[in-house]
Amino acid sequence: MPVLVDKSTLKKAFSTMAAAKAMATLYEDNFKVVSKYVHATSRGHEAIQIAVGMQLLPQDYAFPYYRDDAMMLGIGMQPYDMMLQLMAKKDDPFSGGRTYYCHPSLRDADKPKIPHQSSATGMQAIPATGAAMGFWYKENVGLDDTTVNEKPVVICSLGDASVTEGEIAEAFQMAALKQLPILYLVQDNGWDISANAAETRAQNAFEYAKGFHGLEAITIDGANFTESYLAIQNVLKTIREERRPFLVHAKVPLLNHHTSGVRMEWYRDDLEEAHSRDPYPVLLKQMIDAEFTLDEIAEIEHAATEKVKRDYEKALKAEDPKPEDLFTHDFAPSPITEEAGERNPEREDKVVMVDCALFAVEELMRKHKECLLYGQDVGGRLGGVFREAATLAQKFGDERVFNTPIQEAFIVGSTVGMSAVGLKPIVEVQFADYIWPGLNQLFTEVSRSCYLSNGKWPVSMILRVPIGAYGSGGPYHSSSVESVLANIRGIKIAYPSNGADLKGLLKAAYYDPNPVVILEHKGLYWSKVKGTDEARTNEPSEDYVLPFGKANVVQEIWEQETKETISVITYGMGVHWALNASSKIKDQVEIIDLRTLNPLDEETILKSVKKTKKCLVITEESINNSFARSLAGMIQEKCFKYLDAPVMTIGSENMPAIPLNSVLEQTMIPSAEKVKAKIEELLAY
């Protein structure tokens, strides 16, 4: 029988497979020790995983899934590395003991790059496709900085059950639409957990991919190493040269438990058939066909098994993280720590808020070729539904400013991959009400990447979100969502009240290596709402930056001996309600504009409240369970002995949605008159 793969490749593959098999056996033999933390092994999937891992190059980007430990060995990771993560040890090279076994994140110079991704099955497809879109962008605008002969590819590894996820369709759609250099490797073992393919899938991944024109798919026996190696070799060569997406559907058996906590004997009725397709004896026969002797094979097996045992004993003795290790890498350090540049230069006319942002983005794009903008309707025909991207596509080209499909999850999650390959994406969700499909990616992938990769992969992105009620926008264009966002740790949140702040915060966000959400009130964009003229400002200079976590004392007062005083703590539209409400009692009302909700400037807030002895927190959100009420609780807790009245809040009525009718809308949301009445109530307390 002809040997289709050279002997050195077969030997390396067999040694790697023997190690993966030995690891699975050792984990099972020491179940009570290693099952402290949940894990899964690659047993049954080894052939296709090793075939892929051995052919990846340092310039490639890989997004493995939680069963890919054989792939990790294939790229050059050692059993010891994997076991440090298995036991959540301090020196776990992927996460420092923060996340599960085979949830890798790697930035080694000599290996493929592995950005962090979750184990939420299928979620990694969008960040992976974002990385491929990053390569597409760099190659189209002349930013291709690779010095190697072979162009990079992205590998996204998936279990077949995950392909039913809606976010997979978003990833496939964009890969096919843009012709991105990505390989979706789908390992099909016929199961998710206890539900099998017949119960849960109308078609397999190979059949599903046919619906995405431009995504070429093949199906192979993923338990046959030689077949897998040659198929992957051909696919990778094609992607490197032709820059288009592929899907490889690999049929494999699952020969171990779904995870250590879900035992196969509880529900599996196909174990005998699955073991008949074990990739290990298949590769063993291929070794014999290649004229390896039985003694040589036994020696390779013995060496792999002994190394696994030694690495296990060493890993058992490795140091656990210390309590103080918990508090590192929630954010990467930002270079913007002080206000800089000219905030209020002399100008002929003041500029509306939406234009301050537009000019900021234009300046950034002119200066930084790695800066790009995408989202729904931001391209050349419209320039955004609020004209917030007007003329940018014409000035910078359709590769840098482009429309996406209606795919909020992709818009948000693709920034993980874009950032990983060295770009700085500015993306938009058209209305705050539309952010919900993107929250999965924002929470699961974007916000946790820096922390769970132990600082290796912060996601540097800006998400712009028009927000708030204005001009009878109705229930799907008027919502406030900051309380939900504030409960996502690992993102920064800005909510400016005027154009100068918006420009300064946008510039600071660009240079911040962390994910930033900027909430921009639609009613302030053009100052068309009565009483919002203060949102218009002289446009700050190009180099103006405003650091996050620095509130602004918009209206400052002295401590009064004879008059009651109050601190109003607010942001966004609330600043204008407060200014108008206090216009006749300015000496009694200090107004603090938070500008950013995370980080929060507690020092400025508490200093003001301790001076005035009373406090009102204003929000446009409904009050119950809100950020504002949480903020009021913090102020009450830390200023209790200084207070002459309870900390009060005012916001929208606690109804499920903002009605379309203008009378009902105004009844629902706060106003200067309502705020004035609340201030007077609190002053008289």
Automatic annotation (TrEMBL):
Q: Which PANTHER family match?
A: 2-OXOISOVALERATE DEHYDROGENASE SUBUNIT BETA, MITOCHONDRIAL, 2-OXOISOVALERATE DEHYDROGENASE SUBUNIT BETA-RELATED
Region Disordered: start and end of each range?
323-346
Q: What is this protein called?
A: 3-methyl-2-oxobutanoate dehydrogenase (2-methylpropanoyl-transferring)
Pfam families tied to this protein = E1_dh, Transket_pyr, Transketolase_C
Q: Which organism is it from?
A: Flavobacterium enshiense DK69
- Please give the coiled-coil regions recorded for this protein: none
Which UniProt key words apply to this protein? Oxidoreductase, Thiamine pyrophosphate
Entry's Gene Ontology molecular function annotations: branched-chain 2-oxo acid dehydrogenase activity
Biological process terms from the Gene Ontology for this record are: branched-chain amino acid catabolic process; response to nutrient
| Claim: Oxidoreductase is one of the keywords in the record | yes
**What role does it play?**
E1 component of the 2-oxoglutarate dehydrogenase (OGDH) complex which catalyzes the decarboxylation of 2-oxoglutarate, the first step in the conversion of 2-oxoglutarate to succinyl-CoA and CO(2).
Cofactor(s) named in the record: thiamine diphosphate
